[in-house]
Amino acid sequence: MADIRLIIPAFNEGASIGKVLADIPASVREIIVVSNGSTDNTVEIARKSGATVLTEERLGYGYACLRGIKYLEAQSKAPDIIVFMDGDYSDYPEELNKLVSPILEGNADLVIGARKKELRESGAMTPQQVFGNWLATGLMRWLFGATYTDLGPFRAIRYTALLSLEMTDKTYGWTVEMQLKALRRKLTYTEIPVRYRKRIGISKVSGTIKGTIFAGVKILGWIIKYSLR
Known about the structure:
The chain is α/β, with parallel strands linked by helices. The chain has 8 helices and 7 strands.
C-alpha cells in the first residue's frame, strides 16, 4: 500500500477543520495540519481529531506548506505521495483517492484537482478567482504549451517529484510555482475534475482586496519570471 501523507495549511480554521479531518479517507497514513499563526481553536480540534499538528508563525500559505515538507524530510521513512488540501472545507476530502489514482497507476507525477464550473457550488469561487485562474492558465498555455485549466489547491504529487521542484514561494504563489516548475522539470501531470463548495469562513486571500491584489501580482510575477528564462 502506498504511503500517502496529507498537508493542510490552516489559519484560524476552527469552524471547519474538524469537518475536513472527519472526511479524509483511511488510505492516508498521516494527516499533517500546519497551523499558520492560528489564534482560534484550530490546533486543539486538529489534535483531538488525530492529526499531526505543526506550527508556522510566519504568515503565508507557502510558509505553511514548506513547514510540512521540512517535517517529512526529517522522517526516517520517505512517503510515496503528498497531497495538499485547504482546511476550509471547500474541497471534498473523500475525493482524495480519485486524485492520487493517476500517480498510483504510474500515469502522472502531479495531479491537480480542477474545479470545473459544472462541479462548483454557485458562489464557491469569486469572480476575481475565476478570472485569475483563466488568465494564469491561459498564459501558461500560450507561453509554455501547458494544458492546465486551474490553480486549485487540492493536489497530489509524487514525493520525489516534489523534492525535485525545490519549492521556494512563501505566500500566494505556491500553486503556480509548483505548476511552472513541473513544466520546466518535464514532470508528467494531469487534472482530475473535483467538486468545490463555498468555504466555511472568509477567505484570507480572495475574501479581501489586499489578498486578491497580492495573489494576482505574485502569480503573474512567477509566470513572467519563467517566460523570460
